[in-house]
Amino acid sequence: LVEICRLYADAIFDQLTDTYKKSEDEVRKKLQKTINNIFNDIYDGGLELSIDEKYHITVTVTGFGDDTVETSTAQSISVIFAFIAGIIKLARENKNASSENLRMLESEPYPLVMDAPLSAFDKKRIESVCKALPNVAEQVIIFIKDTDGDLAEKYMSDKIGSRHRFEKIDEFETHLS
Fold it and tell me: Does the model's pTM come out above 0.70?
């Protein structure tokens, strides 16, 4: 009897593992496509991102096989931004997904909070990121310095719902206006 129960348990485990693996593969492929779309909105093509089974991201030159490339600081930040934005965008898009596999991404609409996300980019990339941000999350909160803030406000003026300024008084006191 114990041996029969063990065989049933093994069969159930194998079936669950197979279902989970197929579901994870589907989600990872969709995530890869989404982050590539976001990344290519920032950079005008030429580079492609791929995600392996352990969610390591590799950057390659489009059409040149599997040779990985070294990325600049701004490109590395763009990869990180695309990955985070891709996860949020997938969760948002799949909130009412009909596919049982994609429902695993279901989540509440949490805000995307970023600290100085534009500081590593040139003016052209800042514009691209500013256009991409409102399409990613329902609410985006950005902590930004004056110089980048002026550009962000220029490119996202119709999307800004509220704006606040931190004024440092001393090490222990800051005013919010």
Answer: no
